[in-house]
Design brief:
Blueprint: H1 2-31, H2 42-96, H3 103-124, E1 127-128, E2 131-132, E3 144-147, E4 150-153, E5 160-165, E6 168-173, H4 176-180, H5 188-200, H6 204-257, H7 261-286, H8 290-294
Antiparallel strand pairs: 1-2, 3-4, 5-6
Length: about 300
């Protein structure tokens, strides 16, 4: 009798083991995951947690890079417009110079310069989603305003930068005074105001001074635009690296977490076969009587 009880008892344990194995294999097939909790595989779970944290960091960089690229594209477009307008200012000024130029021609040039001045002021006050991009850290205040007859910078001198990758940052809001004035004593808007007066008065020295100021503003704008282009290239190259790194980390996490479906199916079939065999063995053992042992 003791033999029969031990057989049945051992068979019950084996039934429980094989049932558990089959259930786990079935769960892996349904979820596609080999590791769902720390007890499944502590080391793999730890690596997966660390990998997912790294992926979230990389995704944050990717989102920031996308936003920064949009802002830089807008800055580049604005600066291109400013360069064109400064070039137009040179053309307008040229039309006002010379001994054969009439007062009407000078007036037309002066009016063209007034339009260019106003357009440049609007460019310097460009905002994206309510943020002034040429105000430095003063995001909600228009960078330039005409106060008491003079164009006054109301921003600050701190460019706003964002991280677009590990150890990589780009400026998305610029110091407008460095662009409009640089090392000059007066910003380009006030220089144009003075130049307009000189054109109407046919003041040749004044027009020469104004022409030089336009040249310097042109150089500042093109230099700033070049810097924007460099930052755009940095983001483009960085995004490729971020995407490659993200894929590598995702693949590593998948190896730790995801189930091998072929192996899971095989394991479930094996466990199911073992379960049925154990169940059959227990059933056979339970039909054995005391008389069978006395024969």
């Amino acid at each position: 009798m003791r033999v029969t009880f031990r057989t049945a008892y051992g068979g019950s344990d084996y039934l429980e083991i094989t049932s558990s194995q089959a259930a786990r294999a079935r769960q892996q097939m349904m979820s596609g995951k080999r590791v769902e909790k720390a007890s499944d595989d502590p080391a793999s779970m730890q690596r997966a947690v660390e990998g997912r944290a790294e992926m979230r960091t990389l995704e944050t960089y990717q989102r920031t890079a996308d936003t920064a690229m949009s802002k830089l594209s807008a800055l580049d477009t604005t600066l291109s417009g400013m360069v064109d307008k400064l070039d137009q200012a040179k053309v307008a000024l040229l039309s006002a110079r010379g001994t054969v130029v009439t007062a009407a021609q000078r007036e037309a040039a002066a009016q063209a310069l007034e339009g260019i001045r106003d357009s440049l002021a609007a460019d310097l006050n460009t905002s994206l989603r309510g943020v002034y991009v040429f105000g430095g850290g003063q995001a909600t205040t228009a960078p330039y305003a005409r106060i008491a007859g003079a164009w006054t910078y109301q921003g600050d001198h701190t460019p706003v930068s964002v991280d677009v990758g590990p150890g990589q940052a780009v400026d998305v809001a610029l110091d407008g005074q460095s662009l409009a004035q640089g090392a000059d004593a007066t910003n380009i808007l006030d220089e144009l105001e003075t130049l307009i007066v000189a054109v109407r008065a046919n003041d040749a020295p004044g027009m020469t001074t104004g022409s030089a100021a336009i040249d310097r503003a042109f150089q500042r704008a093109t230099r700033t635009q070049t810097g924007i282009g460099v930052d755009q290239q940095t983001i483009t190259e960085g995004e490729s690296q971020l995407a490659a790194t993200h894929l590598a980390v995702k693949t590593r996490v998948s190896k730790d977490e995801d189930a091998d479906l072929a192996m899971a199916i095989s394991e479930m079939n094996r466990a199911d076969t073992a379960y049925r065999a154990a169940l059959g063995a227990i059933g056979t053992a339970s039909r054995t009587s005391l008389l069978d042992y006395l024969r």
